[in-house]
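Saturday, quiet lab. Running sequence design on the structure tokens for the scaffold JK sent over.
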């Protein structure tokens, strides 16, 4: 408060000095005692009012550029000054009172605005392209963990999913179940010692494979070492399918996993190198160099199919959404990998058999009435929403529980969920599928 008064005096000392001089002059020049008393009183009121005004100006000056919720005090001081001057200067009372009322309203509005939660402005952080090729192995591994899980240290956090979406299907730690895909614990070692030596892999002889695909592309051949196997499994998942993890009904000849260098995931070769580096480093193993990993992917991904390098930006936080609701419903279902596990009429590529066929306009009313139904839904839209965010409320037979991830309530926006619900509500057995919107 002392600093505020000192600043007020430093700002307005000429005005205060003038008023004090007028006070002395009135005492000397006015001989009538009654007139002298009135003049003295008015000058005294003027000095107080001027001082209040100067304090208000000083307070306003100090508060204006700060997150200071006491800013309206300045306006209240000016309001008080106006009404005080209006009482003792009746000829100007109307004008002073109108001004005071305006300052009082301004004080109320600014007070309300300043007590609301404040958002500090500023320029958004500069988005820089990541230079993967110049990173150390540990830096690459950190970027890989961000791509897989959304952040460093998130690999043991339930529901943590990054741009790569790997945890939707895979487990990464010993003892953790991955119902939809193999557990990737120890994969750098198993890739060379187990996978390549499996007779079904048909190392060096792609024509001998009994899978949905023989090669990643004509002439690609097969992997010759563990890192090449990892690269091939990412770019051509159906070139070799681990027993028990194939699409239902294909006798493990087709994988439900999408090629992750293609939409909707679209990891670039540098991003894939970061992911693979993390798979090695997190187990305390020496990783192949960045160039060696990129070269392994170049063997299985033609140049025309490689995502552009300018797409290499910092991976999103673990809370990043898979879909924000601005996309058409088919893209939302693809981004959430629903198309890999479910057959969904009207959605291109949605021919999965890991989960039930999604004709929810027909299925939902029957399931709500099922004696085994444990949910709370009363309508078709409510049932579909519940089955997305809490899939264990009703498990369709003969599919096992816990196959579907329970993270979509956090990973899909309200708008994205609504589009899915609206679309699936209209899908009925034997009827044409609804239009995609």
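Result came back. Writing it out in full:
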């Amino acid at each position: 408060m002392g600093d505020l008064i000192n600043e007020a005096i430093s700002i307005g000392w000429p005005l205060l000095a003038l008023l004090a001089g007028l006070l002395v002059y009135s005492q000397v020049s006015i001989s009538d005692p009654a007139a002298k008393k009135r003049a003295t009183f008015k000058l005294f009121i003027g000095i107080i009012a001027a001082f209040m005004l100067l304090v208000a100006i000083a307070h306003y000056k100090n508060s204006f550029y700060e997150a200071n919720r006491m800013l309206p005090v300045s306006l209240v001081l000016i309001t008080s000054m106006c009404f005080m001057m209006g009482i003792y200067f009746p000829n100007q009372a109307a004008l002073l009172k109108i001004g005071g009322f305006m300052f009082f309203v301004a004080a109320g509005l600014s007070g309300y605005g300043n007590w609301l939660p404040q958002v500090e402005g500023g320029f958004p952080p500069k988005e820089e392209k990541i230079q993967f090729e110049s990173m150390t192995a540990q830096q690459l591994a950190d970027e890989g963990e961000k791509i897989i899980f959304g952040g460093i240290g998130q690999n043991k956090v339930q529901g943590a999913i990054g741009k790569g979406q790997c945890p939707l299907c895979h487990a990464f730690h010993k003892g953790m179940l991955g119902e939809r895909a193999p557990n990737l614990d120890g994969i750098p070692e198993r890739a060379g010692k187990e996978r390549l030596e499996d007779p079904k892999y048909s190392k060096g002889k792609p024509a001998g494979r009994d899978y949905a695909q023989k090669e990643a592309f004509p002439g690609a051949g097969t992997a010759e070492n563990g890192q090449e196997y990892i690269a091939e499994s990412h770019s051509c998942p159906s070139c070799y399918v681990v027993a028990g993890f194939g699409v239902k009904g294909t006798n493990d000849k087709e994988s439900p996993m999408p090629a992750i260098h293609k939409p909707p995931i679209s990891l670039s070769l540098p991003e894939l190198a970061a992911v693979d580096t993390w798979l090695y480093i997190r187990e305390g193993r020496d990783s192949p160099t960045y160039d060696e990993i990129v070269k392994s992917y170049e063997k299985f991904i033609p140049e025309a199919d490689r995502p552009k390098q300018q797409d290499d930006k910092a991976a999103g936080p673990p809370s990043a959404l898979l879909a924000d609701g601005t996309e058409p419903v088919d893209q939302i279902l693809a981004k959430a990998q629903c198309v890999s596990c479910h057959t969904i009429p009207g959605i291109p590529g949605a021919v999965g058999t890991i989960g039930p066929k999604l004709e929810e306009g027909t299925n939902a009313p029957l399931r709500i009435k099922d004696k085994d139904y444990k949910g709370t839904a009363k309508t078709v839209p409510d049932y579909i929403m519940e089955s997305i965010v809490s899939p264990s409320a009703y498990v369709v037979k003969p599919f096992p529980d816990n196959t579907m991830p329970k993270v979509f309530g956090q990973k899909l926006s309200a708008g994205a969920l609504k589009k899915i619900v609206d679309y699936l509500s209209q899908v009925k057995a034997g009827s044409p599928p609804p239009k995609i919107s």
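Notes for JK: The longest helix spans residues 33-63. The mean pLDDT is 81. Ask whether to fix the surface positions before the next round.
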